[in-house]
């Protein structure tokens, strides 16, 4: 026998409307960009009045936060699942690329040009930190035993509060920052269409950057 | 005696109005993002009617193109001037960082999340290619004499139409792509505020990436 749903019909309806609003919001972001997101336009599209919709999302920023939270959550879970099934640093990097290419706007909402006037709340930072922890774990495991100290690692030895108590050596934190920025550099320019017309294979560049990172 | 201005007062007025529109547009981009750019809002701000303003810029895309062209032109000239006064690859990279930090929105308009629905015309590609040529020149000069062929360089030997006939060896083109994407990775995440609160010095990461590139 199925377990009875603990939520009331009213709560289920609310969840359903919020999910539809978010779906419409992703469509709007794809066609007009996150900074042009409009609750009124979404309401119109759904055949609701603006004020009725505002009962589900108090304002644009609350909606963006939900989208950001959903995107970070999905990426964190995707990387965590890959890691659990044995993906090493290269595997996680390729998982990130697949995730980014599957939905460019979702990737760009997290890591692209910020939506002006929007400030993500603390709890989204906590999810992005989960992503960092999964990658730092893999960086620590990928680090050759005798990695020489670099000026960056030396700097990070004293500037590691952002790693939230992760026990990885500073060399692993340095590798994480290089990994993050290099993969983002390739991915964001690819997703923004800068390689279009250049007629080289962005996957070859991605693999080359990855190979250099792994020494 | 000053040479007489070949333009008519009408033409000078036109140039002046277009310059003021572009100034307002940069302000709008800084506060609301490029995708929220509105000719009507600019017209209102300038005390003009929308239709009057449309005599100066036919539509939003023409205005964005002018902004993109101005930004690319400024970056191309800045790098070219640095190169002419002896800057090597590291010097050019630092010049790019200074240029990006001086006006984050200008950098992000060129290399950040694309404005949905906007397609830059061919002639802006020509200016971005000037930027590439200056950097490829510096990459060719910075390349150690016996750089081993990488899979990326091998790939680029057959995929180099984008380098528009530049005589640099494929290894220099590979170095250019690594340089571009790595510097962009650090700069774009820094400008997007992703390092805020991480409390490490982004300049140290930038220099570390640069040092690794230069071998």
Automatic annotation (TrEMBL), chains A, B:
Q: Report domain HTH tetR-type positions.
A: 15-75
- Keyword Protein biosynthesis included in the entry's annotation: no
Q: Which PROSITE patterns match?
A: HTH_TETR_2
What InterPro entries does the record tag this protein with? Homeodomain-like_sf, HTH-type_TetR-like_transc_reg, HTH_TetR, MT1864/Rv1816-like_C, Tet_transcr_reg_TetR-rel_C_sf
Which controlled-vocabulary keywords does the entry list?
A: DNA-binding, Transcription, Transcription regulation
Q: Where is the signal peptide?
A: none
Which Pfam families does the protein's record reference?
TetR_C_33, TetR_N
- DNA-binding region residues: the ranges are 38-57
Work out whether the entry's keyword set contains Zinc-finger: no
What name appears for this protein in its UniProt entry? TetR/AcrR family transcriptional regulator
What lineage is this protein's organism placed in? Answer: Bacteria, Bacillati, Actinomycetota, Actinomycetes, Kitasatosporales
């Amino acid at each position: 026998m199925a377990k009875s749903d603990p939520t009331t019909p009213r709560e289920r309806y609310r969840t359903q409307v919020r999910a539809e609003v978010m779906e419409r919001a992703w469509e709007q972001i794809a066609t007009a960009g996150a900074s042009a997101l409009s609750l009124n336009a979404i309401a119109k599209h759904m055949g609701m009045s603006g004020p009725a919709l505002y009962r589900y999302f108090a304002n644009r920023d609350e909606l963006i936060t939900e989208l950001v939270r959903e995107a970070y959550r999905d990426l964190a879970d995707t990387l965590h699942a890959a890691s659990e099934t044995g993906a090493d640093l290269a595997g996680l990097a390729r998982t990130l690329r697949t995730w980014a290419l599957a939905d460019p706007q979702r990737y760009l909402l997290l890591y692209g040009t910020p939506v002006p006037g929007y400030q993500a709340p603390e709890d989204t930072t906590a999810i992005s930190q989960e992503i960092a922890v999964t990658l730092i774990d893999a960086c620590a495991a990928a680090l050759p035993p005798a990695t020489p100290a670099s000026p960056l690692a030396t700097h990070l030895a004293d500037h590691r509060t952002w790693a939230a108590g992760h026990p990885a050596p500073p060399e692993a934190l340095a590798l994480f920052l290089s990994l993050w920025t290099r993969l983002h550099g390739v991915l964001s320019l690819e997703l923004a269409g800068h390689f279009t017309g250049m007629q080289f294979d962005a996957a070859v560049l991605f693999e080359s950057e990855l190979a250099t990172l792994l020494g």
